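Case study: CBS-domain-containing protein.
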Amino acid sequence: MSSTLSPKHKRKPSTRRQRAPSHLPPRDAHEAALVAIRSFLKCHTSYDAFPVSFRLIVLDTKLNVKKALQCLLLNGVVSAPLWNSEKSAFAGMLTVLDIIHLIQYYYRTANYDYAAMDVETFRLESLRDIENELGVAQPPLVNEHPSSTLYDAAKKLIQTHARRLPLLDKDSATGHEVIVSVLTQYRLLKFIAINCHKEIHQLHMSLRNLKIGTFVSKDPATKDPHNPYHPIATATLDTPVFDVVHMFSERAISAVPIINEDGVVMNLYETVDVITLVRLGAYQSLDLKISEALNQRSPDFPGVVVCSPSDSLGTFLQLLKMRRVHRLVIVEGEEEERNGGKKGRLLGIITLSDILRYIIGISNMENVKEADEDVKASSSTTPDPSLNKSTSYKQEPPNLPTS
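Here is what the predicted structure looks like once written out:
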């Protein structure tokens, strides 16, 4: 972006102090930045990542699914902690994926009219039975104390493959559990992006070299003749919505790239798009083509965030400070096009889970102890409260809303 100054106004000389160049080699500077970020996370608790003001939506497990879904949509969130009022205890999380499982169950076992009636009385406490019926993995019943370090919270998110971590405390008077807040991957990574300015600028290695995320397989031994973009699930504008719903449920993913015949990314279909159809009561719309379903998408959809393999991790974290991003779709860029590729063709996907796992430095939880030894006990980086705190926070703020 450029700007033009009037001839009557002369640009004042900059008084901003220039950052001293790093004397470390590029790779060493990158690794040093990662160690500094891990040290920073070890010195700050989940409390530090809390905004000044936020809303927490908690749903009773006795609530029926329809009312729970209405509550989520009215409050602009896509997940909420569940509370067992009989036991006065935390009972897990309600997420969009739970609703996806329920939709798939009804689609397989009953007609739409039955689904529309049953969803009026179906209670949240029965969702686990649906997952058992479908044979899909149940979400981990994990939580953490708000005073735990952000590093420990991040490790638990990685270990359990969870996208959000409920933070629980004890009521000193009754001894009962109290749900304080929910720490999401997005909130944790944004906290890093806001406070670790110097370190982010040093994360300049390209995504191609870092090899994080899921990429289209080039190994003939692992090629899928039915999906040339294996192991990434893809769809076209002519794919029925329910085929994508099946991918969401079976693979426990939240988005599928929509590509054309050349593999160029045209759009992204997300779990929240399915919820939009359910909110309209359009269960039969699951037979629609993706192209038709996209016409009913909320105008608030932020669009698809794409990048090329030559972009850096630091660039992504800087972007995270400015807008809500939950995944990057990696496509062929100008460099690939010069080598005979197709600009915009799907190469891979990087999720927040991939980014967080890389930053923490744990690809296998057996290496947690080893990673801990690399983290120093103190950090010179202190959080900037004015930047971190937002005016209002909705638990797991949405993309559409989003997850």
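For the exam, be able to explain this: Confidence is low (pLDDT under 50) at residues 1-22, 364-403.
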